[in-house]
Amino acid sequence: MLHDSPAFCGFSVDSLPMAKRFYGQTLGLEIQEDEMGLRIRTGSGFEVFIYAKTDHIPASYTVLNFPVDNIDAVVDGLTELGVTFEKYPELTDARGIARGRQTNRGPDIAWFKDPAGNFLSVLSD
């Protein structure tokens, strides 16, 4: 029934100007702003809608994953731009990368937060 629907996802932030800077300048994504919020188009053409919410509570799960070819290079580049990667004892290395490929436990993945506290990730198979 919905196979032809151009589905998209959305999540809230507490500040659209901060989100616009982070997603547009720091992450380098294409952004369109309208009266309702921000529309972000990813490299695959998938659309993400970000809207302001006065009582925003950050998501406690990953709301957006970015598959990348070279996770080490992307983590280094984002770190240089001021992004802080989450570090979990016995899961991530010193840079914040969980090395799933080496242990046959899924992809290599590194989590970080947007300015509103929502979890994002970069991952590599």
Summarize the structure.
With 125 residues, this protein is α/β, with parallel strands linked by helices. It has helices at 16-26, 71-80; strands spanning 9-13, 30-34, 37-41, 47-52, 62-67, 97-99, 108-113, 119-124. It has two helices and eight strands, in the order βαββββαβββ.
Question: How does the SSE layout of this entry go?
Answer:
Blueprint: E1 9-13, H1 16-26, E2 30-34, E3 37-41, E4 47-52, E5 62-67, H2 71-80, E6 97-99, E7 108-113, E8 119-124
Parallel strand pairs: 1-4, 5-8
Antiparallel strand pairs: 2-3, 3-4, 6-7, 7-8
As for the CATH topology, it is: 2,3-Dihydroxybiphenyl 1,2-Dioxygenase, domain 1
Task: Give the fraction of residues assigned to helices.
Answer: 10-25%
> Can you count the helices?
2
The CATH superfamily is known as: 2,3-Dihydroxybiphenyl 1,2-Dioxygenase, domain 1
User: CATH class, anyone?
Assistant: Alpha Beta
What is the topology, as strand order, of the major beta sheet? Answer: 1-4-3-2
Rounded to an integer, what's the Rg over CA atoms? 15 Å
| Integer tally of domains | 1
Relative strand content: 25-35%
CATH architecture: Roll
Q: Characterize the main sheet.
A: 4 strands, mixed
**What coarse outline follows from CA principal-axis ratios?**
globular
Write the H/E string, N to C. Answer: EHEEEEHEEE
The stretches of 5 or more residues where confidence is low (pLDDT under 50) are none
Question: How would you characterize this protein structure?
Answer:
With 125 residues, the protein is an alpha/beta fold. It has one domain: 2,3-Dihydroxybiphenyl 1,2-Dioxygenase, domain 1. The strands form 2 sheets. The protein has a 4-stranded mixed β-sheet with strand order 1-4-3-2, with helices on one face. A 4-stranded mixed β-sheet has the order 5-8-7-6. 22% of the residues are buried.
